[in-house]
Structures are given as structure tokens and as C-alpha cells.
Design goal:
The chain is 82% helix and 0% strand. It has two domains: 1-92, no CATH class; 93-141. The longest helix is centred in the C-terminal third of the chain and has 24 residues, at 94-117. It is built from six helices and no strands. It starts with a helix and ends with a helix. It is mainly α.
Length: 141
């Protein structure tokens, strides 16, 4: 049970601080300069965590295992990060931006999972999409 729970708790905790930090990014700094600092820290911490956790400490050998997804994920994360920074700078409230983005993401991922991964769309998910749409309508009024 803990193996299922702790990753979600980590995501929720990290996402909470993520949104606090994104909203607290000074408007005077260029968003990409801020991300440069952010990812410099992330790169350094990732490198340290690699050496603390890896059984095989051969970094070049591990990096050789990377495929296209690691590179595209880097591009995607920049879009995600600057999107949140711009949303907050353009007036989105913390209590609606994440909810709106995550509900929209959940709906899109249901469709993506069905098309690309052959996962079934259940009547319960369709009902959930309808409830989410209603929720988005309610928080935007």
C-alpha cells in the first residue's frame, strides 16, 4: 500500500511548493533566466542523487541508455514551467490555475491513453469528464 501512496504524496507535496514558487517568481526576472537557475539547481541535485542512489556509478554508461523521451521531456518541462509562470503573471489565481490545468490534463490523457495505449474509456470516466467540465464551469464563474 505504501508503494502506491508515497509517490502520490510526493507529487502533491512537490506540486504544492511548485505552485508557491511559480507564483512567487519575481515579475522583474525574465522567465527563462529564472528557469535557468531552477534547472541548474535541479541538474546539480540530480547528479548528487545519482551518485547516492545508483548501484553502478558509471554516469556515461547510464546516460547512454537515454532515449528520445529524456530529451523531449526537457523541452516539455520548459513549456510547463514557463506556462505556469506566465499564467500567474497574467492574473490567474493560485486556487484556479492548477485545478483548471490538471482537470484539462486528465481529460486529455484519457483520450491519449485510449488512442495510443489502447486503454478503455469507461462509462465512469465519461461521467468523470462531465463532472470535471461542470467543475471547471463552476470555478470560472
Amino acid at each position: 500500500m505504501w508503494n502506491l501512496l508515497y509517490p502520490i504524496l510526493l507529487i502533491v507535496l512537490a506540486n504544492t511548493f511548485y505552485n508557491i514558487c511559480a507564483k512567487s517568481t519575481p515579475s522583474e526576472i525574465n522567465g527563462f533566466a529564472s528557469l535557468f537557475v531552477t534547472y541548474g539547481v535541479a541538474a546539480l541535485l540530480s547528479l548528487c542523487a545519482f551518485f547516492l542512489t545508483a548501484k553502478n556509478k558509471n554516469l556515461p554508461a547510464e546516460l547512454a541508455k537515454a532515449n528520445w523521451s529524456s530529451f523531449v521531456l526537457g523541452l516539455v518541462i520548459i513549456g510547463l514551467e514557463i506556462g505556469y509562470i506566465l499564467a500567474y503573471r497574467n492574473g490567474w489565481k493560485m486556487n484556479t490555475v492548477s485545478v483548471t490545468a490538471n482537470i484539462s490534463l486528465a481529460v486529455i490523457l484519457i483520450v491519449v491513453a485510449a488512442i495510443f495505449y489502447k486503454e478503455q474509456i469507461t462509462p465512469r470516466q465519461i461521467a468523470g469528464i462531465a463532472v470535471c467540465a461542470g467543475g471547471l464551469l463552476m470555478i470560472s464563474l
